[in-house]
């Protein structure tokens, strides 16, 4: 909290003029003389400023205190934060380390170091081959089903349509419907397999 002013040359000159008149009380005069002798920053306590204001007001001087303090500023002391409690600092560091460790464990919970260091085995290769084989059979089955639906619709539509364009169009529509139905069943099956993992 502020308790003093940092005064400038206007205050210094005005107070020197007041001191030359010589009618100032002894204790106030001593305080002001000691203030004028100090080195920068020139600090004027509020208590001395109040005494000087009372003196100027009581004796009817044409100079007012606010005119003397025109180029002055309020002196704010440097804030010194209180020292932190070492037990609190140690506890905060412990909590930070614990939170960092929990975060690390959460991130690495699905990492198996033995799996990373072990080279691929024949069982791993067999599992991968079975997975690829199942995918290839599924795609082949899809293609065969769509082709069979196309052929069946093309050959069956010869009894309804005489033009080739109409027969091809009906075969494409039938193959598309069968293909979409096959995709729906395939997606539902894969969702079930992924849910089991």
UniProtKB/TrEMBL annotation:
Which topology term describes how it sits in the membrane? Multi-pass membrane protein
Q: Where are the transmembrane segments?
A: 134-156, 168-187
Task: Report the principal subcellular site.
Answer: endoplasmic reticulum
Q: What keywords are annotated for this sequence in UniProt?
A: Endoplasmic reticulum, Membrane, Transmembrane, Transmembrane helix
Q: Which GO terms describe its biological process?
A: vacuolar proton-transporting V-type ATPase complex assembly
List GO terms (cellular component aspect).
endoplasmic reticulum membrane
**Coiled-coil regions listed:** none
Q: Which InterPro entries match?
A: ATPase_Vma12
Q: Which Pfam families match?
A: Vma12
Location of the protein in the cell: Endoplasmic reticulum membrane
Q: Under which name does UniProt file this protein?
A: Transmembrane protein 199
Please report the organism this UniProt entry assigns to the protein. Paramormyrops kingsleyae
């Amino acid at each position: 909290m502020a308790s003093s002013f940092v005064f400038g040359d206007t205050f210094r000159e005005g107070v020197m003029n007041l001191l030359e008149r010589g009618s100032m009380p002894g204790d106030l005069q001593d305080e002001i003389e000691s203030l004028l002798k100090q080195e920068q920053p020139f600090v004027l306590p509020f208590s001395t400023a109040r005494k000087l204001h009372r003196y100027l007001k009581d004796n009817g001087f044409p100079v007012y205190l606010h005119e003397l303090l025109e180029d002055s500023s309020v002196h704010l002391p440097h804030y010194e934060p209180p020292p932190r409690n070492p037990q609190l600092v140690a506890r905060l560091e412990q909590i930070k380390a614990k939170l960092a460790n929990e975060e690390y464990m959460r991130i690495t919970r699905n990492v198996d170091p033995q799996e990373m260091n072990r080279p691929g085995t024949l069982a791993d290769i067999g599992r991968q081959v079975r997975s690829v084989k199942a995918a290839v059979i599924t795609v082949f089955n899809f293609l065969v089903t769509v082709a069979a639906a196309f052929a069946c619709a093309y050959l069956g539509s010869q009894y309804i349509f005489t033009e080739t364009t109409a027969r091809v169009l009906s075969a494409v529509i039938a193959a598309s419907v069968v293909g979409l139905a096959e995709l729906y069943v395939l997606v539902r099956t894969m969702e079930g397999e992924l849910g089991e993992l």
